[in-house]
Specification:
CATH class of the largest domain: Alpha Beta
Number of helices: 12
Order of helices and strands: EHEHEHEHEEHEEHEEHEHEHHEHH
Distance between the termini: 49 Å
Helix content: 25-40%
Radius of gyration: 20 Å
Largest sheet: 7 strands, parallel
Length: 352
């Protein structure tokens, strides 16, 4: 029997890239994408007519994922790999919306996964930032360590990962990416969020002397999307249960990342420092954060980040010849893509 992969989160950027990676690894496989009704038209446009792909309308916030009973019965007998990517990733997401999708949605997916009779692997996409406000070294087995959280996104992903870890008798791989940016070769990305808020801020500051924001002595863990996809495809088939930090094993500091982006994007170095408290106060004013195009929650990621230990992941990925590229080596590709698409409104995150 050929493998049958079921994915949530399509037609999102990560799930679309992951689909292509899985097809390359397993050309004879079949696929079912659980697609929210609001995304079905986009999904049809992206997938076209591919006989090995089935687009199934559903909703992870509903019991049985909102799937008709006859479809549910068929999938329970056919699905061999379930990859759960659907989530709200917005740093500024309200608590109720984040909880409904990220926590309740994952609970519903977990129950569905437990009913699959031929399941070989359940892959859950968490985030390294379930570490919340922790500082110092965070191992891949660490989860609940009394930490607080910088936003509802982190908190609800933490709660969801706890639910996944509590599953019994399910072969489970938990993926914890760092901050994901575009493709290391092409620079391609779907949205200018995350570290791209630095790009947008520096763009707005270009006519003026550019400041650093805070001390930035902490590690700033950035990874390209192609590393995430290549690693996830490998880990999906490696037969190893556990939690995997898909993070840069040798990250630059936030200050170094900021300076490298400024030099590549603007051709000049920052000349002075704005204390983080002042930057946060400024971005609390809607008019200012909209001018700069920066979510106020993003400022927190310039300081007080954890140091993610990815020793286990690196040892496993080495067996597949996979390594994380150095940020400096692919930054020019990220900047070039950003410059070519900076005015694309579909890639901009609305600032509240």
């Amino acid at each position: 029997m050929s493998n049958h992969y079921m994915l949530t989160g399509y037609p999102g950027f990560l799930s679309g890239r992951l689909f292509r990676g899985l097809v390359q690894h397993d050309p004879s496989a079949r696929f079912t994408f659980l697609v929210h009704p609001s995304q079905m038209d986009k999904a049809r446009q992206q997938i076209g007519s591919q006989d090995h792909v089935h687009l199934l309308e559903g909703d992870i916030t509903l019991e049985d994922l909102g799937i008709p009973e006859e479809e549910t019965n068929r999938l329970r007998e056919e699905v061999t790999h379930f990859l759960h990517l659907a989530a709200i990733y917005d740093l500024a997401v309200p608590k109720d919306a984040a909880y409904k999708v990220n926590v309740k949605g994952t609970d519903h997916v977990n129950r569905f996964v437990q009913s699959l009779t031929h399941l070989k692997r359940y892959v859950y996409f968490s985030t390294a930032y379930v570490s919340g406000t922790r500082t110092g070294k965070v191992t891949e087995e660490d989860l609940a360590c009394g930490q607080d959280f910088k936003n509802h996104y982190e908190e609800t992903k933490f709660e969801a990962e706890k639910l996944v870890r509590d599953l019994k008798g399910v072969p489970t791989t938990i993926i914890r990416p760092g901050v994901v940016v575009g493709d290391s070769q092409t620079g391609e990305t779907e949205k200018f969020d995350g570290p791209y808020f630095i790009f947008r801020y520096l763009d707005a500051m270009n006519p003026f002397p550019v400041p650093y924001v805070g001390k930035g002595e902490n590690p700033f863990n950035i990874v390209p999307v192609d590393y995430i996809i290549q690693s996830t495809v490998y880990l999906t088939h490696a037969g190893k249960d556990g939690t995997f930090h898909l993070t840069d094993p040798s990250p630059y500091s936030a200050r170094e990342v900021y300076e490298m982006i400024a030099e590549e994007l603007l051709g000049k170095k920052p000349r002075y420092t704005i204390p983080e408290k002042i930057a946060k106060a400024m971005m609390s004013i809607r008019m200012i954060r909209r001018y700069f195009g920066v979510e106020k929650e993003a400022i927190s990621y310039m300081s007080s980040q954890s140091d993610y230990d990815s020793s286990w992941t690196q040892s496993v990925l080495r067996e597949g010849g996979i390594h994380c590229p150095d940020f400096k080596s692919y930054l020019p590709n990220l900047v070039r893509y950003y410059q070519e698409h900076r005015e694309d409104t579909a890639k901009k995150i609305p600032i509240r």
